[in-house]
Prior knowledge:
It holds the Pfam family TPR_12. Helix content is 83%, strand content 0%. By secondary structure, it is mainly alpha-helical.
Amino acid sequence: MANLASTYRNQGRWDDAEKLEVQVIETRKTKLGEDHPSTLTSMANLALTYMNQGRWDDAKKLNVQVMETSKTKLGEDHPDTLTSMHNLAFTLQLQARHEEAFALIEECFKLREQVLGEEHSDTQSSLNMLSNWRAECE
């Protein structure tokens, strides 16, 4: 179901993706628990769908929940937590909450650099986002 939802997302079939993603989340919550990494991944996927639908508040709410739960369950510097932090920063930027977004992506970049190393693709992704946002502010 999660794979089919991903296919729908890739095809831009946002409503179909959303319906399946909600089912996947509910099933994973029941079978695996609310704080299981697979459940959190499903929630992050739904947040991505919400972003593509222009539902910024829904996306932000889910991204915050994923990040906070990841911090508690996996640790503040776990790669999955850092991915959720990156996603939340992007969502905040789309909501024109630039100061919050900038502070969060800066923190994410620093943690990724420490944990993953300077050359890691995730670290570079956060650095690119940070650099682009800096350039927009100048």
